[in-house]
What we know:
By secondary structure, chain A is mainly alpha-helical. Chain A contains 13 helices and no strands. The longest helix of chain A has 29 residues, at about 95-125.
Amino acid sequence: xxxxxxxxxxxxxxxxxxxxxxxxGVLWYLINPLxxxxxxxxxxxxxxxxxxxxxxPLFLLVGLVVWVFFxxxxxxxxxxxxxxxxxxxxxxxPREIIPASVVTVQLVTFLALIAxxxxxxxxxxxxxxxxxxxxPLVLACLFAFILGxxxxxxxxxxxxxxxxxxxxxxxxxxxxxxxxxxxxESITEQATARFVLEWVNPVAPFIGSVxxxxxxxxxxxxxxxxxxxxxxxxxxxxxxxxxxxLQGELAVVV
Amino acid sequence: xxxxxxxxxxxxxxxxHASRSFSARADRGRTLKEMLIGRTRAGGPPAxxxxxxxxxxxxPGETVGMVGRNGAGKSSTLRVLAGIVPLNSxxxxxxxxxxxxxxxxxxxxxxxxxxxxxxxxGALHGLQKEQIEARLDAIIEFSELGDFIDSPVATYSxxxxxxxxxxxxxxxxxxxxxxxEVLAVGDEAFQRKCEARIAEQxxxxxxxVLVSHDAALIERTCERxxxxxxxxxxxxxxxxxxxxxxxxxxxxxxxVPPVACEPSGERVSPQ
Lengths: 254, 271
Protein backbone atom coordinates (compact mmCIF):
# COMPACT_ATOMS: atom_id res chain seq x y z
CA UNK A 1 0.00 0.00 0.00
CA UNK A 2 2.42 2.62 -1.22
CA UNK A 3 -0.43 5.10 -1.56
CA UNK A 4 -1.77 4.78 1.99
CA UNK A 5 -0.52 8.25 2.82
CA UNK A 6 -2.07 9.71 -0.32
CA UNK A 7 -5.42 8.33 0.81
CA UNK A 8 -4.94 9.97 4.20
CA UNK A 9 -4.07 13.27 2.53
CA UNK A 10 -7.06 13.11 0.22
CA UNK A 11 -9.43 12.45 3.12
CA UNK A 12 -7.99 15.37 5.02
CA UNK A 13 -8.17 17.61 1.99
CA UNK A 14 -11.76 16.60 1.27
CA UNK A 15 -12.74 17.24 4.88
CA UNK A 16 -11.22 20.67 5.01
CA UNK A 17 -11.59 21.95 1.49
CA UNK A 18 -15.36 22.09 1.23
CA UNK A 19 -16.01 24.37 4.15
CA UNK A 20 -12.65 26.08 4.33
CA UNK A 21 -13.02 29.69 5.40
CA UNK A 22 -16.53 29.20 6.74
CA UNK A 23 -16.97 30.05 10.41
CA UNK A 24 -18.22 26.62 11.43
CA GLY A 25 -15.85 24.68 9.19
CA VAL A 26 -16.17 20.91 9.37
CA LEU A 27 -19.13 21.24 11.74
CA TRP A 28 -21.22 21.78 8.61
CA TYR A 29 -20.79 18.10 7.88
CA LEU A 30 -22.82 17.43 11.03
CA ILE A 31 -25.18 20.38 10.86
CA ASN A 32 -26.64 19.49 7.46
CA PRO A 33 -27.78 15.98 8.39
CA LEU A 34 -28.95 17.21 11.79
CA UNK A 35 -31.12 19.87 10.16
CA UNK A 36 -32.43 17.33 7.67
CA UNK A 37 -33.26 14.94 10.50
CA UNK A 38 -34.94 17.74 12.44
CA UNK A 39 -37.08 18.62 9.43
CA UNK A 40 -38.17 15.05 8.86
CA UNK A 41 -38.89 14.56 12.50
CA UNK A 42 -41.09 17.68 12.45
CA UNK A 43 -42.82 16.47 9.31
CA UNK A 44 -43.45 12.85 10.15
CA UNK A 45 -43.05 12.73 13.90
CA UNK A 46 -45.12 15.77 14.82
CA UNK A 47 -47.25 17.08 11.95
CA UNK A 48 -48.24 13.77 10.35
CA UNK A 49 -47.82 11.75 13.48
CA UNK A 50 -48.15 8.10 12.53
CA UNK A 51 -46.54 7.03 15.78
CA UNK A 52 -47.02 3.33 15.25
CA UNK A 53 -43.65 2.79 16.87
CA UNK A 54 -42.69 3.59 20.43
CA UNK A 55 -40.29 6.52 20.79
CA UNK A 56 -41.02 7.30 17.18
CA PRO A 57 -38.45 10.11 16.82
CA LEU A 58 -35.68 7.69 17.71
CA PHE A 59 -37.09 5.04 15.38
CA LEU A 60 -37.05 7.59 12.60
CA LEU A 61 -33.65 9.09 13.32
CA VAL A 62 -31.83 5.76 13.47
CA GLY A 63 -33.17 4.86 10.03
CA LEU A 64 -32.57 8.32 8.68
CA VAL A 65 -28.93 8.46 9.70
CA VAL A 66 -28.22 5.30 7.67
CA TRP A 67 -30.00 6.73 4.66
CA VAL A 68 -28.20 10.06 4.91
CA PHE A 69 -24.85 8.24 4.87
CA PHE A 70 -25.85 6.28 1.77
CA UNK A 71 -27.35 9.28 0.03
CA UNK A 72 -24.55 11.75 0.77
CA UNK A 73 -21.78 9.29 -0.05
CA UNK A 74 -23.22 8.31 -3.41
CA UNK A 75 -24.18 11.85 -4.41
CA UNK A 76 -20.76 13.28 -3.59
CA UNK A 77 -18.84 10.33 -5.07
CA UNK A 78 -20.55 10.60 -8.47
CA UNK A 79 -18.78 13.78 -9.69
CA UNK A 80 -15.62 13.21 -7.62
CA UNK A 81 -13.41 11.97 -10.47
CA UNK A 82 -14.36 14.96 -12.59
CA UNK A 83 -13.80 17.33 -9.67
CA UNK A 84 -10.28 15.96 -9.29
CA UNK A 85 -9.62 16.01 -13.03
CA UNK A 86 -6.41 17.99 -12.60
CA UNK A 87 -4.91 15.14 -10.59
CA UNK A 88 -6.24 12.41 -12.85
CA UNK A 89 -4.84 14.04 -15.98
CA UNK A 90 -1.41 14.81 -14.60
CA UNK A 91 -0.37 12.06 -12.22
CA UNK A 92 -0.36 8.33 -12.00
CA UNK A 93 -1.87 6.91 -8.86
CA PRO A 94 -4.66 4.47 -8.00
CA ARG A 95 -7.74 6.48 -8.92
CA GLU A 96 -9.94 4.51 -6.54
CA ILE A 97 -8.50 6.76 -3.87
CA ILE A 98 -10.65 9.67 -5.05
CA PRO A 99 -14.13 8.17 -4.55
CA ALA A 100 -12.88 6.19 -1.55
CA SER A 101 -11.77 9.37 0.21
CA VAL A 102 -15.14 11.01 -0.47
CA VAL A 103 -16.96 8.03 1.02
CA THR A 104 -14.60 7.96 3.98
CA VAL A 105 -15.39 11.57 4.80
CA GLN A 106 -19.08 10.67 4.84
CA LEU A 107 -18.24 7.67 7.00
CA VAL A 108 -16.62 9.95 9.55
CA THR A 109 -19.75 12.13 9.58
CA PHE A 110 -21.95 9.07 9.90
CA LEU A 111 -19.93 7.66 12.80
CA ALA A 112 -20.12 11.02 14.56
CA LEU A 113 -23.90 11.03 14.16
CA ILE A 114 -24.13 7.42 15.38
CA ALA A 115 -21.96 8.31 18.37
CA UNK A 116 -24.47 11.06 19.23
CA UNK A 117 -27.58 9.08 18.51
CA UNK A 118 -26.83 5.56 19.73
CA UNK A 119 -26.22 6.35 23.43
CA UNK A 120 -29.36 8.51 23.57
CA UNK A 121 -31.45 5.81 21.91
CA UNK A 122 -30.06 3.04 24.05
CA UNK A 123 -30.58 5.02 27.25
CA UNK A 124 -34.14 6.06 26.34
CA UNK A 125 -35.22 2.67 25.14
CA UNK A 126 -33.24 0.58 27.59
CA UNK A 127 -31.91 -1.48 24.72
CA UNK A 128 -28.40 -2.14 25.97
CA UNK A 129 -27.89 -5.72 24.90
CA UNK A 130 -25.14 -8.03 23.73
CA UNK A 131 -26.66 -7.54 20.27
CA UNK A 132 -24.77 -4.25 20.27
CA UNK A 133 -21.60 -6.27 19.71
CA UNK A 134 -22.86 -6.87 16.20
CA UNK A 135 -22.84 -3.15 15.42
CA PRO A 136 -19.22 -3.06 14.13
CA LEU A 137 -19.98 -5.90 11.72
CA VAL A 138 -23.17 -4.25 10.51
CA LEU A 139 -21.44 -0.89 10.03
CA ALA A 140 -18.49 -2.50 8.24
CA CYS A 141 -20.91 -4.14 5.82
CA LEU A 142 -22.71 -0.84 5.34
CA PHE A 143 -19.43 0.92 4.55
CA ALA A 144 -18.32 -1.79 2.10
CA PHE A 145 -21.71 -1.70 0.38
CA ILE A 146 -21.66 2.07 0.00
CA LEU A 147 -18.02 2.10 -1.11
CA GLY A 148 -18.78 -0.44 -3.83
CA UNK A 149 -21.74 1.57 -5.10
CA UNK A 150 -19.69 4.78 -4.97
CA UNK A 151 -16.85 3.24 -7.02
CA UNK A 152 -19.31 2.12 -9.68
CA UNK A 153 -21.20 5.40 -9.75
CA UNK A 154 -18.08 7.57 -9.91
CA UNK A 155 -16.47 5.70 -12.79
CA UNK A 156 -19.75 5.46 -14.70
CA UNK A 157 -20.38 9.16 -14.30
CA UNK A 158 -16.92 9.97 -15.70
CA UNK A 159 -17.89 8.26 -18.96
CA UNK A 160 -21.64 8.83 -19.04
CA UNK A 161 -22.52 12.23 -17.67
CA UNK A 162 -26.16 11.27 -17.28
CA UNK A 163 -25.39 9.08 -14.28
CA UNK A 164 -25.36 11.76 -11.59
CA UNK A 165 -28.63 13.43 -12.70
CA UNK A 166 -30.35 10.05 -12.98
CA UNK A 167 -29.08 9.19 -9.54
CA UNK A 168 -30.32 12.36 -7.90
CA UNK A 169 -33.70 11.85 -9.55
CA UNK A 170 -33.85 8.26 -8.31
CA UNK A 171 -32.76 8.95 -4.76
CA UNK A 172 -35.90 10.87 -3.73
CA UNK A 173 -38.47 8.14 -4.51
CA UNK A 174 -35.94 5.58 -3.27
CA UNK A 175 -35.87 7.47 0.00
CA UNK A 176 -39.65 7.30 0.39
CA UNK A 177 -39.89 3.56 -0.27
CA UNK A 178 -37.04 2.83 2.12
CA UNK A 179 -38.21 1.71 5.57
CA UNK A 180 -37.19 4.91 7.31
CA UNK A 181 -40.55 6.22 8.48
CA UNK A 182 -42.26 2.87 8.72
CA UNK A 183 -41.80 -0.85 8.97
CA UNK A 184 -42.86 -2.60 5.76
CA GLU A 185 -45.09 -4.98 7.72
CA SER A 186 -47.01 -2.13 9.29
CA ILE A 187 -47.96 -0.39 6.04
CA THR A 188 -48.91 -3.30 3.80
CA GLU A 189 -50.57 -6.69 4.13
CA GLN A 190 -49.64 -7.69 0.62
CA ALA A 191 -46.83 -10.25 0.50
CA THR A 192 -45.33 -9.08 -2.80
CA ALA A 193 -45.23 -5.44 -1.78
CA ARG A 194 -43.70 -6.36 1.53
CA PHE A 195 -41.09 -8.51 -0.15
CA VAL A 196 -40.15 -5.67 -2.48
CA LEU A 197 -39.91 -3.16 0.36
CA GLU A 198 -37.88 -5.49 2.54
CA TRP A 199 -35.59 -7.30 0.13
CA VAL A 200 -35.52 -5.78 -3.34
CA ASN A 201 -34.38 -2.43 -2.01
CA PRO A 202 -30.79 -3.24 -0.99
CA VAL A 203 -30.66 -0.40 1.52
CA ALA A 204 -33.61 -1.76 3.51
CA PRO A 205 -31.82 -4.65 5.23
CA PHE A 206 -29.03 -2.27 6.30
CA ILE A 207 -31.53 0.12 7.84
CA GLY A 208 -33.29 -2.84 9.47
CA SER A 209 -30.08 -4.27 10.93
CA VAL A 210 -28.81 -1.00 12.35
CA UNK A 211 -32.24 -0.32 13.80
CA UNK A 212 -32.52 -3.81 15.31
CA UNK A 213 -29.21 -3.43 17.11
CA UNK A 214 -29.52 0.17 18.36
CA UNK A 215 -33.24 0.85 18.62
CA UNK A 216 -34.56 -2.66 19.19
CA UNK A 217 -31.76 -4.12 21.28
CA UNK A 218 -32.12 -7.39 19.40
CA UNK A 219 -29.96 -9.47 17.10
CA UNK A 220 -31.02 -8.96 13.46
CA UNK A 221 -32.58 -11.97 11.77
CA UNK A 222 -30.26 -14.51 10.17
CA UNK A 223 -31.60 -13.81 6.71
CA UNK A 224 -31.07 -10.10 7.16
CA UNK A 225 -27.49 -10.56 8.38
CA UNK A 226 -26.70 -12.93 5.54
CA UNK A 227 -28.22 -10.42 3.11
CA UNK A 228 -26.07 -7.50 4.24
CA UNK A 229 -22.87 -9.57 4.18
CA UNK A 230 -23.63 -10.77 0.65
CA UNK A 231 -24.79 -7.32 -0.53
CA UNK A 232 -21.62 -5.72 0.85
CA UNK A 233 -19.39 -8.30 -0.83
CA UNK A 234 -21.17 -8.15 -4.17
CA UNK A 235 -21.24 -4.34 -4.22
CA UNK A 236 -17.58 -3.98 -3.28
CA UNK A 237 -16.21 -6.69 -5.56
CA UNK A 238 -18.48 -5.72 -8.44
CA UNK A 239 -17.95 -1.98 -8.03
CA UNK A 240 -14.20 -2.38 -7.87
CA UNK A 241 -14.09 -4.70 -10.88
CA UNK A 242 -16.13 -2.21 -12.89
CA UNK A 243 -13.84 0.62 -11.79
CA UNK A 244 -10.70 -1.32 -12.80
CA UNK A 245 -12.21 -2.20 -16.14
CA LEU A 246 -13.18 1.32 -17.08
CA GLN A 247 -10.48 3.40 -15.44
CA GLY A 248 -7.90 3.14 -18.25
CA GLU A 249 -9.22 6.02 -20.32
CA LEU A 250 -9.97 8.19 -17.31
CA ALA A 251 -7.26 10.76 -18.03
CA VAL A 252 -8.74 11.23 -21.49
CA VAL A 253 -12.40 11.60 -20.55
CA VAL A 254 -12.34 13.73 -17.42
CA UNK B 1 3.15 -1.36 -11.48
CA UNK B 2 2.81 -3.96 -14.18
CA UNK B 3 4.86 -7.14 -14.28
CA UNK B 4 6.52 -5.77 -17.40
CA UNK B 5 7.62 -2.66 -15.54
CA UNK B 6 8.90 -4.72 -12.64
CA UNK B 7 11.19 -6.51 -15.11
CA UNK B 8 12.90 -3.26 -16.16
CA UNK B 9 15.93 -1.79 -14.48
CA UNK B 10 15.43 1.46 -12.58
CA UNK B 11 15.67 4.25 -15.14
CA UNK B 12 15.08 2.02 -18.15
CA UNK B 13 12.33 3.06 -20.58
CA UNK B 14 10.81 0.83 -23.21
CA UNK B 15 8.26 1.83 -25.82
CA UNK B 16 7.39 -0.86 -28.36
CA HIS B 17 5.21 -0.26 -31.41
CA ALA B 18 3.19 2.23 -29.44
CA SER B 19 0.07 3.64 -31.05
CA ARG B 20 -2.54 5.88 -29.57
CA SER B 21 -5.31 7.98 -31.04
CA PHE B 22 -7.65 10.50 -29.49
CA SER B 23 -11.16 11.49 -30.41
CA ALA B 24 -11.22 15.14 -31.38
CA ARG B 25 -14.76 15.74 -30.20
CA ALA B 26 -15.42 18.25 -27.47
CA ASP B 27 -17.64 15.96 -25.43
CA ARG B 28 -15.46 12.96 -25.08
CA GLY B 29 -17.65 11.14 -22.61
CA ARG B 30 -20.38 9.03 -24.12
CA THR B 31 -23.95 9.63 -23.11
CA LEU B 32 -26.06 6.94 -21.62
CA LYS B 33 -28.32 6.99 -24.66
CA GLU B 34 -25.39 6.06 -26.89
CA MET B 35 -24.46 3.24 -24.60
CA LEU B 36 -28.01 1.92 -24.48
CA ILE B 37 -28.59 2.03 -28.21
CA GLY B 38 -25.08 0.74 -28.69
CA ARG B 39 -23.60 3.15 -31.15
CA THR B 40 -21.69 6.36 -31.20
CA ARG B 41 -22.40 9.46 -33.20
CA ALA B 42 -21.06 9.35 -36.70
CA GLY B 43 -19.42 12.33 -38.30
CA GLY B 44 -17.37 14.99 -36.61
CA PRO B 45 -13.62 15.26 -37.00
CA PRO B 46 -11.72 12.00 -37.33
CA ALA B 47 -9.66 10.67 -34.45
CA UNK B 48 -6.22 12.23 -34.06
CA UNK B 49 -3.45 9.69 -34.22
CA UNK B 50 -1.04 11.06 -31.66
CA UNK B 51 1.38 8.13 -31.75
CA UNK B 52 1.85 5.80 -34.68
CA UNK B 53 3.97 2.75 -34.11
CA UNK B 54 6.62 4.51 -32.06
CA UNK B 55 9.38 2.40 -30.56
CA UNK B 56 12.33 3.45 -28.45
CA UNK B 57 14.53 1.89 -25.83
CA UNK B 58 16.16 4.26 -23.38
CA UNK B 59 18.91 3.02 -21.08
CA PRO B 60 19.25 4.13 -17.46
CA GLY B 61 21.12 7.42 -17.27
CA GLU B 62 20.42 8.51 -20.85
CA THR B 63 19.32 12.05 -21.57
CA VAL B 64 16.80 12.29 -24.37
CA GLY B 65 15.37 15.43 -25.88
CA MET B 66 12.13 15.19 -27.78
CA VAL B 67 11.26 17.77 -30.42
CA GLY B 68 8.76 18.27 -33.19
CA ARG B 69 6.05 20.58 -34.38
CA ASN B 70 2.99 21.38 -32.29
CA GLY B 71 0.82 18.31 -32.41
CA ALA B 72 3.65 15.97 -33.37
CA GLY B 73 2.90 13.71 -30.40
CA LYS B 74 5.53 14.87 -27.91
CA SER B 75 3.23 15.49 -24.99
CA SER B 76 1.20 12.38 -25.76
CA THR B 77 4.39 10.34 -25.67
CA LEU B 78 5.23 11.76 -22.27
CA ARG B 79 1.75 11.06 -20.95
CA VAL B 80 2.04 7.50 -22.22
CA LEU B 81 5.48 7.10 -20.62
CA ALA B 82 4.11 8.51 -17.37
CA GLY B 83 1.43 5.82 -17.39
CA ILE B 84 -1.40 8.33 -17.40
CA VAL B 85 -2.80 7.48 -20.82
CA PRO B 86 -2.93 3.84 -21.98
CA LEU B 87 -1.91 2.72 -25.47
CA ASN B 88 -4.28 1.42 -28.12
CA SER B 89 -1.61 -1.05 -29.12
CA UNK B 90 2.01 -1.76 -28.32
CA UNK B 91 3.58 -1.68 -24.92
CA UNK B 92 5.26 0.76 -22.59
CA UNK B 93 7.17 0.64 -19.35
CA UNK B 94 9.43 2.75 -17.15
CA UNK B 95 11.54 1.16 -14.45
CA UNK B 96 11.81 2.61 -10.96
CA UNK B 97 10.38 5.83 -9.59
CA UNK B 98 8.91 7.93 -12.38
CA UNK B 99 8.52 11.63 -11.72
CA UNK B 100 6.59 13.50 -14.37
CA UNK B 101 6.57 17.25 -14.60
CA UNK B 102 3.87 17.66 -17.18
CA UNK B 103 2.38 20.69 -15.54
CA UNK B 104 3.97 22.11 -12.46
CA UNK B 105 1.67 22.49 -9.54
CA UNK B 106 -1.08 20.38 -11.12
CA UNK B 107 -3.44 19.37 -8.40
CA UNK B 108 -2.33 21.96 -5.92
CA UNK B 109 -5.18 22.76 -3.56
CA UNK B 110 -5.36 26.51 -3.86
CA UNK B 111 -6.77 27.02 -0.38
CA UNK B 112 -3.95 25.03 1.18
CA UNK B 113 -0.56 26.31 2.18
CA UNK B 114 2.58 25.58 0.24
CA UNK B 115 3.69 23.24 3.00
CA UNK B 116 0.44 21.25 2.88
CA UNK B 117 0.72 20.99 -0.88
CA UNK B 118 4.22 19.55 -0.57
CA UNK B 119 2.76 16.69 1.43
CA UNK B 120 -0.09 16.12 -1.00
CA UNK B 121 2.20 16.20 -4.02
CA GLY B 122 4.71 13.85 -2.42
CA ALA B 123 1.86 11.49 -1.57
CA LEU B 124 0.72 11.58 -5.20
CA HIS B 125 4.07 10.06 -6.12
CA GLY B 126 3.58 7.28 -3.61
CA LEU B 127 5.76 8.70 -0.84
CA GLN B 128 4.95 8.18 2.83
CA LYS B 129 4.78 10.92 5.41
CA GLU B 130 8.26 10.26 6.84
CA GLN B 131 9.83 10.30 3.38
CA ILE B 132 8.28 13.66 2.64
CA GLU B 133 9.27 15.08 6.02
CA ALA B 134 12.85 14.08 5.31
CA ARG B 135 12.82 16.18 2.12
CA LEU B 136 10.71 19.06 3.41
CA ASP B 137 13.52 21.44 4.32
CA ALA B 138 15.38 20.88 1.06
CA ILE B 139 12.21 21.52 -0.94
CA ILE B 140 11.36 24.71 0.93
CA GLU B 141 14.91 25.99 0.67
CA PHE B 142 15.09 25.23 -3.03
CA SER B 143 11.79 26.97 -3.72
CA GLU B 144 13.08 30.20 -2.10
CA LEU B 145 9.58 30.80 -0.80
CA GLY B 146 10.70 31.53 2.74
CA ASP B 147 7.82 32.41 5.03
CA PHE B 148 5.33 32.23 2.17
CA ILE B 149 5.49 28.45 2.48
CA ASP B 150 2.77 28.68 5.13
CA SER B 151 0.50 30.94 3.06
CA PRO B 152 -2.23 29.49 0.85
CA VAL B 153 -0.92 28.94 -2.68
CA ALA B 154 -3.87 31.00 -3.94
CA THR B 155 -1.91 34.01 -2.76
CA TYR B 156 1.22 33.04 -4.74
CA SER B 157 2.36 34.73 -7.89
CA UNK B 158 2.53 32.41 -10.89
CA UNK B 159 6.32 32.34 -10.54
CA UNK B 160 6.10 31.25 -6.91
CA UNK B 161 3.55 28.61 -7.83
CA UNK B 162 5.80 27.10 -10.49
CA UNK B 163 8.87 27.33 -8.28
CA UNK B 164 7.14 25.29 -5.60
CA UNK B 165 5.94 22.77 -8.17
CA UNK B 166 9.43 22.32 -9.56
CA UNK B 167 11.04 22.13 -6.14
CA UNK B 168 8.77 19.28 -5.11
CA UNK B 169 9.27 17.32 -8.32
CA UNK B 170 13.04 17.86 -8.15
CA UNK B 171 13.30 16.21 -4.74
CA UNK B 172 11.44 12.97 -5.28
CA UNK B 173 14.46 10.77 -6.07
CA UNK B 174 13.42 10.11 -9.64
CA UNK B 175 14.84 7.21 -11.63
CA UNK B 176 13.01 8.57 -14.64
CA UNK B 177 12.36 12.28 -15.12
CA UNK B 178 9.73 13.25 -17.66
CA UNK B 179 9.69 16.98 -18.26
CA UNK B 180 7.34 18.82 -20.57
CA GLU B 181 8.35 22.37 -21.42
CA VAL B 182 8.23 23.50 -17.83
CA LEU B 183 11.75 24.74 -17.32
CA ALA B 184 10.83 28.32 -18.05
CA VAL B 185 10.26 28.65 -14.35
CA GLY B 186 10.68 31.90 -12.55
CA ASP B 187 13.50 34.29 -13.29
CA GLU B 188 16.73 33.51 -15.05
CA ALA B 189 18.57 32.74 -11.83
CA PHE B 190 15.98 30.19 -10.83
CA GLN B 191 15.99 28.64 -14.30
CA ARG B 192 19.72 28.14 -14.02
CA LYS B 193 19.19 26.55 -10.65
CA CYS B 194 16.60 24.18 -12.13
CA GLU B 195 18.96 23.11 -14.88
CA ALA B 196 21.70 22.55 -12.33
CA ARG B 197 19.34 20.47 -10.21
CA ILE B 198 18.38 18.33 -13.22
CA ALA B 199 22.07 17.88 -14.09
CA GLU B 200 22.66 16.79 -10.51
CA GLN B 201 19.92 14.16 -10.77
CA UNK B 202 21.33 12.92 -14.09
CA UNK B 203 24.78 12.68 -12.54
CA UNK B 204 23.12 10.60 -9.85
CA UNK B 205 21.98 8.13 -12.50
CA UNK B 206 18.51 9.41 -13.43
CA UNK B 207 17.15 9.09 -16.94
CA UNK B 208 15.80 12.26 -18.52
CA VAL B 209 13.18 12.70 -21.22
CA LEU B 210 12.77 16.38 -21.99
CA VAL B 211 10.22 17.91 -24.34
CA SER B 212 11.02 21.45 -25.34
CA HIS B 213 10.98 23.89 -28.21
CA ASP B 214 14.13 25.45 -26.81
CA ALA B 215 16.84 23.92 -29.02
CA ALA B 216 19.66 25.45 -26.98
CA LEU B 217 18.29 23.95 -23.76
CA ILE B 218 18.10 20.51 -25.36
CA GLU B 219 21.61 20.80 -26.72
CA ARG B 220 22.89 21.74 -23.26
CA THR B 221 21.00 18.97 -21.42
CA CYS B 222 20.57 16.02 -23.77
CA GLU B 223 22.86 13.63 -25.61
CA ARG B 224 20.19 11.91 -27.65
CA UNK B 225 17.46 13.45 -29.74
CA UNK B 226 14.14 12.05 -30.90
CA UNK B 227 12.25 13.96 -33.56
CA UNK B 228 8.55 13.28 -33.87
CA UNK B 229 6.33 14.30 -36.75
CA UNK B 230 2.67 13.44 -37.22
CA UNK B 231 2.89 10.86 -34.47
CA UNK B 232 5.83 9.04 -36.03
CA UNK B 233 9.43 8.92 -34.95
CA UNK B 234 11.44 10.33 -37.83
CA UNK B 235 14.84 10.65 -36.16
CA UNK B 236 16.51 9.01 -33.20
CA UNK B 237 20.19 9.59 -32.65
CA UNK B 238 22.90 11.83 -31.22
CA UNK B 239 21.76 15.36 -30.60
CA UNK B 240 24.50 16.94 -32.74
CA UNK B 241 23.22 15.05 -35.78
CA UNK B 242 19.59 15.45 -34.87
CA UNK B 243 19.48 19.20 -34.42
CA UNK B 244 20.42 20.04 -38.02
CA UNK B 245 17.84 17.50 -39.15
CA UNK B 246 15.22 19.12 -36.90
CA UNK B 247 16.05 22.60 -38.11
CA UNK B 248 15.75 21.45 -41.71
CA UNK B 249 12.38 19.93 -40.87
CA UNK B 250 11.13 23.09 -39.30
CA UNK B 251 12.64 25.40 -41.88
CA UNK B 252 11.67 23.63 -45.05
CA UNK B 253 9.21 21.09 -43.84
CA UNK B 254 7.71 20.32 -47.23
CA UNK B 255 11.06 19.73 -48.86
CA VAL B 256 12.15 17.06 -46.40
CA PRO B 257 12.04 13.68 -48.06
CA PRO B 258 10.66 10.79 -46.04
CA VAL B 259 13.61 9.75 -43.91
CA ALA B 260 14.36 6.24 -42.91
CA CYS B 261 13.55 5.74 -39.28
CA GLU B 262 16.79 3.99 -38.44
CA PRO B 263 19.59 6.53 -38.60
CA SER B 264 22.86 6.02 -36.84
CA GLY B 265 22.52 5.90 -33.14
CA GLU B 266 19.17 4.14 -33.35
CA ARG B 267 18.91 1.87 -30.38
CA VAL B 268 15.62 0.16 -30.87
CA SER B 269 16.45 -3.47 -31.20
CA PRO B 270 14.83 -5.11 -34.22
CA GLN B 271 11.68 -6.96 -33.23
